[in-house]
Design brief:
By secondary structure, the protein is an alpha+beta fold. It contains 14 helices and 35 strands.
Length: 624
């Protein structure tokens, strides 16, 4: 399992060769996408020996001591809690010595490869397939996997002399093409509005407007849903208003893989139009690599900026755009930039780079090391748990999404939040919705509610990472399994796009022109930056947190909103009506079983501990 490879380089038995010194297998690749390509793909012949390869050789340094110190500075019970280090101190104490970086570079150069970059994180080498085959004691074959062509390295090795120096190697197995659909994309029959469809009234609060002209559901009238909440409403509902906390002096990092150049203008326009503070000069900084082409359309990452700004309106934003150039992985580059330069105090990633098991990134152990370095520096990483429910791949294999499943990050699940009159927290249910539509004659729901499964918060139990210390005694054994494993998510915030935060984005019209539009955000891509905003408030009050999970799990359950169950078919089942593309839909939240998720009071695989309250925020004032 990968779990054995995460805190130290694992040295497999060396094998002697008649043609050279002993070699050891490259660690950290078991269960990754590369291994799956070879195991399940179809071999189509040898690779072209003249084709180019760029290999990233990640360096281990003192991984075991790094992991131990990362735990110590994150655990409120440890005497070293909060004794964070600077990036330079982390490199000096736990990074590879320069002589070992030089030695690895010299070995690679001696095989004919060119060194295009060498630093404490990795040595990057480039050359032909033939040269890489010699350097890594392997052969390269072509494969087709899920209709995508790949070039793969079979059982790569390194000289035993350098085994302790090398964490993992990436770039040897790569896609050489993209999947091409066999024909036009399928169309849907729901392309036009029904005649006489009621217009949604868009009330300000949940409970303001019963849908008197619609059929009842579960034995009582349904409510029209608000068409989106303002930032002030969300702050009120989560108890932030009145704390005096705004995130001032704290920097929230947003991981982006797109150079969305309208992220700042859109955030400022939305803020100005909704009575929120705009970004003062110097409070929004974009870190953009030279190879990142500008994208005029906003989307995922502009929403992240606005969600964090909604919760912590005076926090700084570091908008960090990754490049594939240094490590072959744009997300890892963003993480590395933040850690190596300490660009932020709290970081949100509305990004998934794979699933464990089976589709994990080849650089997974390099990600884990970077997250541990972040913890040692006092940086809090927060990632979306994903929108795929319980993560069944369809072959009976249950997965959780990565990086959210890393024990070194805070995984944020999603909720459906009803904000009532006075911006009160009326109820909150795990985001796992079923939906059905108004019948053609407008007299019933077709099919009968709850209807069809919709989207759901990602969650479940890892088969890769052992249970971290902070989950012991909190996560029920029924979830954690035997032996107990890492379970996600840790916490939650609003995510249901049918009942969610308003955002403003520059979007493409059908004719290719651009226009600014306001609509609902949603998904755990919104709940992650929203909770990162909450963490910015905690940092403002408490100081740096590093890995926040030990402190979050140490809080009493009353510090979180208890997320309610909502069994369908009972007289008190909650349901609400929305208008989507001209159709009236009935949404029934909290249908966990339909999304392969499990509900239990106190902790569940939809929302973890629950969503934030004023008590949670104020508890960081009184104690670590």
């Amino acid at each position: 399992m990968l779990g054995s490879l995460l805190t130290a380089t694992v040295l497999m038995p060396a094998t002697a060769s008649a043609n050279g010194p002993a070699r050891v297998p490259v660690g950290g690749s078991e269960g990754t996408n590369s291994s799956r390509v070879i195991r399940e793909g179809t071999r189509t012949g040898p690779a072209d020996p003249a084709a180019q390869v760029t290999a990233q050789v990640f360096l281990a340094g003192d991984s075991r001591r790094l992991a131990g110190y990362a735990r110590a500075v994150s655990d409120p019970r440890d005497l070293r809690y909060g004794h964070f280090l600077t990036p330079g101190q982390v490199r000096a104490r736990f990074g590879p010595a320069q002589q070992r970086i030089d030695a690895v570079s010299g070995w690679l150069r001696g095989t004919g490869l060119s060194i295009v970059g060498a630093g404490p994180r990795a040595v990057v080498a480039r050359g032909t397939v033939a040269q890489a085959a010699e350097a890594f004691g392997t052969r390269f074959e072509n494969y087709t996997y899920q209709e995508i062509p790949f070039r793969a390295a079979l059982d790569p090795t390194v000289p035993a002399e350098f085994g302790p120096d090398i964490l993992t190697v990436t770039g040897l197995t790569v896609a050489t093409g993209t999947w091409q659909p066999p024909g036009p994309a399928p169309t849907t029959s729901r392309t036009a509005a029904r005649a006489g469809t009621p217009a949604g009234p868009c009330p300000d609060h949940y409970g303001d407007t019963p849908a008197a002209d619609l059929p009842s559901a579960y034995g009582h009238p349904v409510q029209w849903a608000p068409c989106g909440y303002t930032p002030r409403q969300v702050r009120d509902a989560y108890g932030i208003t009145g704390t005096g906390l705004t995130g001032k002096g704290v920097t929230v990092g947003i991981i982006s893989i797109g150079n969305e150049v309208n992220a700042l203008p859109d955030a400022n326009r939305f803020a100005a139009e909704h009575g929120e503070p705009v970004f003062a000069p110097g409070r929004f900084t974009a870190y953009v690599p030279a190879d990142a082409a500008p994208e005029e359309g906003s989307g995922e990452f502009a929403m992240d900026v606005q969600a964090a700004h909604a919760i912590a309106p005076q926090a700084n934003i570091a908008f960090v755009v990754g490049s594939r150039a240094p490590y072959g992985d744009a997300v890892l580059d963003s993480v590395a930039q933040i850690v190596d330069r300490h660009l932020a105090d709290v970081v949100s990633g509305s990004i998934i780079v794979g699933f464990t098991p089976g589709y994990a990134p080849d650089a997974l152990v390099a990600y884990e090391r970077a997250f541990q370095e972040g913890a040692v520096e006092g940086i809090t990483f927060t990632f979306a748990s994903g929108d795929s429910g319980g993560g069944d791949l369809g072959d009976g294999v249950r997965t959780v999404e990565y990086p959210a499943s890393s024990p070194w990050v805070t995984a944020v699940g999603g909720t459906t939040l009803a904000i009532g009159p006075g911006n009160s927290h009326r109820w909150e249910i795990g985001w796992a919705t079923d939906e059905t539509s108004l019948s053609a004659d407008g007299t019933s729901w077709d099919p009968a509610p709850p209807g069809y499964q919709g989207k759901a918060s990602g969650g479940g139990t890892s088969t890769v990472f052992p249970q971290p210390f902070y989950q012991r005694g909190v996560v029920p054994t029924a979830f954690a399994g035997a032996p107990p494993m890492r379970t996600v998510p840790d916490v939650a915030a609003l995510a249901d796009p049918d009942l969610c935060l308003l955002v403003g984005e520059t979007d493409y019209n059908l004719d290719g022109s651009l226009s600014y539009k306001v609509g609902n955000g949603g998904g755990t891509s919104l709940s992650s930056p929203a909770f990162a905003g909450v963490e910015a408030l905690l940092v403002q009050e408490h100081g740096p947190l590093g890995l926040a999970n030990p402190a979050l799990y140490a809080r009493p359950r009353s510090a979180y909103h208890a997320i309610a169950d909502n069994p369908a078919g009972t007289p008190d089942t909650v349901a609400f009506a929305v208008v989507s593309h001209g159709f009236v839909d009935l949404i029934t939240p909290g249908q966990y079983a339909d999304a392969s998720l499990t509900y239990a009071p106190g902790y569940d695989t939809v929302t973890g501990l629950g969503s934030p309250t004023r008590q949670l925020i104020e508890s960081f004032r009184r104690q670590p």
